[in-house]
């Protein structure tokens, strides 16, 4: 079922949303200082192409520089990508079949705005990590 959802997602919205992320990544790679934003954009493009079965989680080691980077990201690239997700979700929700995809598109808006300090992982790993009991360190 997940594969069917990913194929339908790719045909309806995934390919052009990923194209937006690729263009944003190329734009970010023009300057040396913004190359980390380009890498994050390319990583998100891979997630946007094939999202079902994966999720974004906050990294435990994300710190102050992720916050600073996310502020810069929002100002340079994030708001445009978030608007792309909002519009795609709106258009997808115009049909009954597209409603679940539109909702999935809207769930990606926070990731489009704040990508630094997050990583894309399989849903099973995210679920396991969330409920795992921390082991004492020796």
Structural write-up:
- The protein has 138 residues and is mainly α.
- It has one domain.
- It has six helices and two strands.
- The chain has a two-stranded antiparallel sheet with strand order 1-2.
- Helix 1 runs antiparallel to helix 2, helix 1 crosses helix 3 and helix 3 packs antiparallel against helix 4.
* Pattern of helices and strands: HHEHHHEH
Which range best describes the helical content: under 10%, 10-25%, 25-40%, 40-55%, 55-70% or over 70%? 55-70%
Strand order of the largest sheet: 1-2
Number of domains: 1
Number of helical regions:
6
* Low-confidence runs of at least 5 consecutive residues: none
State the shape. globular
Strand content: 5-15%
Protein structure class: mainly alpha
Distance, first to last CA: 43 Å
Assembly type: single chain
In total, the number of strands is 2
What is the C-alpha radius of gyration, as a whole number of Å?
16 Å
Task: Provide mean pLDDT, rounded.
Answer: 85
Sheet having the most strands: 2 strands, antiparallel
Q: Which descriptors apply to this entry?
A:
two-stranded antiparallel ribbon, 2 strands, 138 residues, mainly alpha
Blueprint of the fold:
Blueprint: H1 2-28, H2 35-49, E1 54-58, H3 64-92, H4 99-107, H5 109-113, E2 118-122, H6 123-131
Helix pairs in contact: 1-2, 1-3, 3-4
Gist of the model:
With 138 residues, this protein is mainly alpha-helical. The chain contains six helices and two strands.
């Amino acid at each position: 079922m997940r594969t069917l959802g990913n194929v339908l997602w790719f045909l309806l919205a995934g390919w052009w949303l990923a194209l937006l992320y690729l263009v944003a990544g190329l734009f970010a790679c023009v300057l040396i200082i913004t190359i980390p934003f380009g890498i994050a954009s390319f990583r998100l493009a891979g997630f946007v192409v094939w999202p079902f079965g994966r999720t974004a989680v906050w990294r435990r080691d994300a710190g102050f520089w992720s916050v600073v980077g996310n502020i810069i990201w929002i100002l340079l690239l994030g708001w445009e990508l978030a608007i792309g997700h909002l519009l795609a979700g709106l258009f997808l929700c115009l049909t009954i079949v597209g409603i679940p995809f539109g909702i999935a598109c809207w769930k990606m808006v926070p990731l489009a705005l704040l990508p630094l300090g997050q990583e894309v992982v399989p849903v099973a790993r995210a679920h396991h990590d969330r409920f795992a009991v921390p082991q004492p360190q020796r």
